[in-house]
Amino acid sequence: MMVDLRTSYLGLRLRNPLIASASPLTGNLKSLRALEDYGAAAVVLPSLFEEDILQDRHALELALDAGAGVSEVCGGYFPGREKFGGAVEHYLALIDRARSALDIPVIASLNGTTDFGWTELAARLAAAGASAIELNLYDLPLDLVQSGVEVEEATISLVKRVRTALDVPLAVKLGPYYSAFGQMAQALADAGADGLVLFNRLYHPDVDLLRLCAVHNLELSRRHEMRLPMMWLTALQGQIPVSLAASTGVESAVDVVRYLLAGADAVMSTSALLRHGPKYMTSLLSGLEEWLESRGFDNINAVRGLLATHGDTCTRLQERDAYRASLHYSQPTAR
Q1: 150 by DSSP, 3-state: which?
Q2: pTM as predicted
Q3: What confidence tens digit (pLDDT) does each residue in 42-73 have?
Q4: Rounded Cα–Cα distance for residues 289 and 4 (Å)
Q5: Which site among 16, 19, 83, 224 is 20 to 30 Å from 279 CA-CA?
Q6: For 146-190, what is each residue's pLDDT tens digit?
Q7: Overall CATH class of domain 7-204+213-310
Q8: What are the start-end ranges of the H helices in 141-226?
Q9: Is 42 helix (H, G, I), strand (E, B) or coil?
Q10: How far apart are CA 155 and CA 326, in angstroms?
């Protein structure tokens, strides 16, 4: 039996639900080609950070100031701004090369902090040929006087502004830490988001007890981290008119199945591909196909959202009962 793995994400037709999300693997053409060859249905390029652009500008200003008043030699002391190869130019070139070399959608990822970093850059990435834009929202609200409402309103306003600057699909990759995430998801859909990526993993520093300093590293995700995204996928699937992508914790094909059952339109992988290399995409893909075929499913639409709760009251009561039962089950037996 042939299994139809085709799906749609952000209005883009994909040959299967597996997307290679932003990582060093998606930052060069060789590994991008390998990911496509091994089955990736789309790729998300590494995030372009506004801080990198500001650093480039500062370096250029210093170089131009250093050459001020020096006689020109051979047509100029230092290349002009338009020839300065900074982060933006390199990223635009990567988009162009990737779109020319690949037959699958190429999604650009953007992480900004100001209007320039979001709206203007998003428009430039789209104009360069990106199939879609993914806003990677990472800005910890550490201001003790800023309210949760203000944080959420600023995020919604940002998505509205970026949406008006684009003519390509827009995804928002965000964390789960909002006071009412369901309402926030709906508000982002109303603001113009075409899809949500659940979830962005926030940076959690550790402490080095020998050197008495913070340890700045990022651990690759593990399967146990899937539970929170799955919970919200089951609640949101069918409730808001946007695509839902699952991110975090995919270690094997059965994890892809779990996310599809919860309601994901697409499943993104980073950590597993970094651990095992681009070829591991074939294992995820073949395992998914084998699981579906062994259970008599001829397409992924037949399983997508089978476990979705749609936020109904009856399901909420069942979940509370399950929570109570799990706590009782975990109690040590008295002797």
Answers
A1: helix
A2: 0.85
A3: 999 999 988 887 665 544 444 444 455 555 54
A4: 9
A5: 224
A6: 898 999 999 999 999 999 999 999 999 999 989 899 999 999 999
A7: alpha beta
A8: 148-165, 181-191
A9: strand
A10: 36
